[in-house]
């Protein structure tokens, strides 16, 4: 067995980012970063909470567009109401998955406020994006809800597999690249040996607790990246239980261009995607044909920010 001594753990620090326009909530973002654009097909990792909704106001993200990606929503605590332009209206709770595949274009809103959930106490979770491979990124948009993510127990840890396969279980959610995403809950003082695909690169996001990943201490909210080449990851908790999220996949072989809520390949694609969203806000046929509308949201959609005065360039891993 080719163990953890064969590779170095690369640590990625979180940065605070406002999310959601005028009623923005603050999230901690580790991907993309200056160090790394992708882990497998995962191109975006946001981590938020635990936030007291009565104090913060909770999550209220007005309708906004996406192209060329999947949004992967996973909660530790709280509830979020998802609405989208293909007609989906779905509340998500901990242990469930909301998966939206944007394809050539979709719009959606996300709400986790006391207005919708009067007994809501805390908002706490992650949102991940996967970049769709070129063969699938122009497909029609879809939405999936997984009510019960499959679970496996390993070395005393509970692993909820919400994307891909791990430990003999497979999520029913559709993936377009070989990948894995799972919540891992580790009891205090435990050593957990995760069997992983040696052809995958992986990252471990620490939500809570003191965790060591392949011998490297990783602070809460930080991301630990591991290159392909080993068939296990060793996680060690200290005096307190640990909650973490594992993501990974085969290294993504395509360069991607991420700007705002769009994942494309060229500057021209991003310019066109932005223009069509502004058309959708204005109610023109070209914009509505691409992004539709989000029925039921009480408020205006988010306008796109101005494009930078430089040519946008794609990046690889």
TrEMBL record:
Classification via SUPFAM superfamilies: RmlC-like cupins
Pirin N-terminal domain location: 26-129
Keyword entries, A-Z: Iron, Metal-binding
Cofactor: Fe cation
Signal peptide coordinates: none
InterPro entries: Pirin, Pirin_C_dom, Pirin_N_dom, RmlC-like_jellyroll, RmlC_Cupin_sf
UniProt: Fe cation binding residues: 64, 66, 108, 110
Pfam families: Pirin, Pirin_C
Domain of life, source organism: Bacteria
GO molecular function, one term: metal ion binding
Transmembrane segments: none
Domain Pirin C-terminal span(s) in chain numbering: 183-279
Cofactor info, note text: Binds 1 Fe cation per subunit.
Family to which this protein belongs: Belongs to the pirin family.
The protein's name in its UniProt record: Pirin
Taxonomic source organism: Sanguibacter antarcticus
Source lineage: Bacteria, Bacillati, Actinomycetota, Actinomycetes, Micrococcales
């Amino acid at each position: 067995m080719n163990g953890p001594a064969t590779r170095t753990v690369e640590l990625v620090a979180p940065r605070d980012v406002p999310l959601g326009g005028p009623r923005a909530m603050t999230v901690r973002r580790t991907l993309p970063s200056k160090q790394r654009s992708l882990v497998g097909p995962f191109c975006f990792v946001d981590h938020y909470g635990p936030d007291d909704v009565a104090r913060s106001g909770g999550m209220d993200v007005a309708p906004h567009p996406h192209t060329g990606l999947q949004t992967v929503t996973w909660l530790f605590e709280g509830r979020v109401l998802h609405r989208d332009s293909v007609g989906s209206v779905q509340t998500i709770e901990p242990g469930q998955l909301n998966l939206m595949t944007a394809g050539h274009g979709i719009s959606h809103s996300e709400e986790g406020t006391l207005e919708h959930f009067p007994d809501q106490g805390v908002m706490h979770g992650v949102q991940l994006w996967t970049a769709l491979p070129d063969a699938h990124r122009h497909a029609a948009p879809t939405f999936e809800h997984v009510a019960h993510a499959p679970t496996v127990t390993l070395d005393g840890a509970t692993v909820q597999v919400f994307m891909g396969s791990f430990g003999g279980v497979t999520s029913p959610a559709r993936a377009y690249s070989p990948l894995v995403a799972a919540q891992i809950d580790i009891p205090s003082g435990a050593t957990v040996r995760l069997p992983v695909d040696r052809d995958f690169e992986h990252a471990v996001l620490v939500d809570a607790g003191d965790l060591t990943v392949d011998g490297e201490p990783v602070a809460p909210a930080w991301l630990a990246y591991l290159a392909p080449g080993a068939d296990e990851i060793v996680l060690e908790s200290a005096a307190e239980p640990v909650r973490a999220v594992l993501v990974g996949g085969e290294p993504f072989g395509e360069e991607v261009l991420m700007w705002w809520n769009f994942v494309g390949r060229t500057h021209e694609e991003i310019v066109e995607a932005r223009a069509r969203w502004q058309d959708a806000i204005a109610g023109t046929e070209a914009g509505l044909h691409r992004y539709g509308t989000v029925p039921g949201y009480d408020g205006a959609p988010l306008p796109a920010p101005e494009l930078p005065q430089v040519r946008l360039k794609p990046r690889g891993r």
